Amino acid sequence: MTVSWMPDWVTHPGTSFTLRSGAHEWHGERPADWDGIGAGLRAAHERLRELPVRHVVAAFDEVADRWAKRDFAPRRAVVRDASLVTGMSEETVDRALDAEVGNLRAESLLAALTRELGDPEVLDGFRGGTTAVGPGTTLAVFSGNVPGLPARSLVRALLVKSSLIAKVPAKEPHFTAAFLRTLHEVEPVLADAVVATYWDRDDEAALTAALAHADAVVVYGGDEACAAVRARVQPHQLYEEHAHKFSFGLVSAEYATRHGPAEVARRIAADSSDFDQHACLSPQVYLVQAAHARAVARHLADAMRRAAVDCPPGTVEAHDAIALQHRRLVAEWRSATSDTSEVWAPDGLEWTVLLDDSLLPLTGAGDRVARIVPVPDLAAAVDLVRPYARHLQNVGLGAVGEELRRVGRELAVLGASRICAPGAMTKPSMSWRHDGQPRIAGLVRWADVELHPELEAD
Description:
Blueprint: E1 15-21, E2 24-30, H1 34-49, H2 53-67, H3 73-86, H4 90-102, H5 106-117, E3 130-133, E4 137-141, H6 150-159, E5 163-167, H7 174-186, H8 188-191, E6 194-197, H9 204-211, E7 216-220, H10 223-230, E8 238-242, E9 246-251, H11 253-259, H12 261-273, E10 286-289, H13 290-310, H14 318-336, E11 342-344, E12 352-355, E13 369-375, H15 378-385, E14 392-398, H16 401-414, E15 418-420, E16 445-448, H17 453-457
Parallel strand pairs: 4-5, 4-7, 5-6, 7-8, 9-10, 9-14, 10-13, 12-13, 14-15
Antiparallel strand pairs: 1-2, 3-16, 11-12
């Protein structure tokens, strides 16, 4: 099935493309007449503006209801194909979709709209003298480390009644078009406001053509990929970026005492196993107060083993397998010469637990490598991660009482945009201000009526 989505109003022939993963390949269509696409999206935007925002929310709720069912045929096809491309097990992909689709229910969307806009219906017209207007067309460039991730920005754009050009991720190209096909069944006006396609990173012509019709630009990817797009954004275009991020966890002695090392380990295992630890929200390391670090690490080995049985890990690519095996050997050598280092691992590469005496190296995270580093206290832990503040995103903070508030504030000042309990690192809500900025309100332009006698009479 095609991995692109073209509305019915696209009548001109496009250019075909093929994406491959091993022996498997998938096909799609890329626009040839970008001026025609731009004109069609502007017309679609005008039709979209006529939909009340609560009608848009209800449509997404219906789509989410269908996609929440694991036996839904389009979902099963996406899970199968995403597993082939990403190497993740089907259960891992299913859990990723459970998390993403769960955020698209009406209650979640209305909560996010209310938090960022105050009154969702400012998107429909003037409310109390103010209204919010979304971009005519948004260009979204997606990456594919987490199946289902494009849903967030796609939905945000359509909530503010912006048409959309979506570049699907090569590493997981299937979800976007399949989701849009369901959306078309529920509310064609929404789906017909989106063109989803793909072009290579070095295809300057396609990027230039898409940018020419965008009022807002949303980019996911590594630092270099984001910088390449950012350099071409014009002053009149809104710009939102989700580049390389670093996440970690902290556990205080009081938190470990209150919950016990086995429960703390279970929560860390969940954070380190979800998405096979390939999401930006996944922890690269957990810094645990020294008195409890070894006990947590020992229990963590059992917890990681159970997590691998409950949700099997995916395949590890050859170069990643070599790097992981080398890292295990280095860690085992260090543990032989240090009383504060230890390694727990099965014969295979399903998971690895490292008790390290140093934060470095930070390379090699992913593929369910759970690292525990002892620290004297949480203040020392915050100082350890200070050099990485520019990329800091998500922190699993195991602390209680006043220490939770104090350390949470320090982490926020340092650069963290999300702080949650251990075990919840990979489960962000739609209300989270992604990477520290309002992602719905950030797309709109406000207009206020003031000093007007007609309004004052109301």
